């Protein structure tokens, strides 16, 4: 891809729309069976009996859906080299089977990497909300982005 966005192409407050992503019952259960088999993620009745109020997607499933929405929205266009981790993730409300998620990712900080001059660091915040406009997830993480000069370096 020749029209990639490098670190120098980004600016603070660049933002990217996420979603929509429909959350279906089968996907909630399949994720839970593999990664978080708590009853309220596997069974609608157990979910209704819990404080979550219904068949609820695992928080880690929510993070995986956020990752997919980020990829679908902007990651393939960037000269991304991955992320060293998350600063935080907050699960603010349950995501229930049948919900539709959407949101926004925004760059809040840009800085060159002190240890790797070929990279810059873009710090993103992410917010997902359900179809009622209620925030369900927020997170922040740095993303390593190649610098344009490094892309031209023959080494």
UniProtKB/TrEMBL annotation:
Q: Which residues form the MaoC-like domain?
A: 14-109
CDD domains cross-referenced by the UniProt entry: YdeM
Q: Which superkingdom does the taxonomy of this entry point to?
A: Bacteria
Q: Can you name this protein?
A: MaoC family dehydratase
Give the species: Pseudohoeflea coraliihabitans
């Amino acid at each position: 891809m020749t029209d990639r966005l490098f670190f120098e192409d980004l600016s603070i407050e660049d933002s990217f729309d996420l979603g929509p992503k429909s959350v279906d019952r089968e996907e909630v259960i399949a994720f839970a069976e593999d990664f978080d088999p708590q009853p309220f993620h596997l069974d609608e009745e157990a979910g209704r009996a819990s404080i979550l109020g219904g068949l609820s997607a695992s928080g880690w499933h929510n993070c995986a859906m956020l990752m997919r929405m980020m990829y679908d929205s902007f990651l393939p266009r960037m000269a991304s080299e991955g992320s060293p981790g998350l600063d935080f993730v907050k699960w603010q409300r349950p995501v229930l089977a049948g919900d539709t998620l959407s949101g926004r990712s925004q760059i809040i900080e840009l800085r060159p990497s002190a240890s790797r001059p070929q990279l810059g660091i873009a710090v993103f915040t992410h917010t997902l909300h359900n179809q009622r406009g209620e925030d369900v997830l927020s997170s922040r993480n740095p993303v390593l982005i190649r610098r344009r000069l490094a892309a031209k370096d023959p080494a």
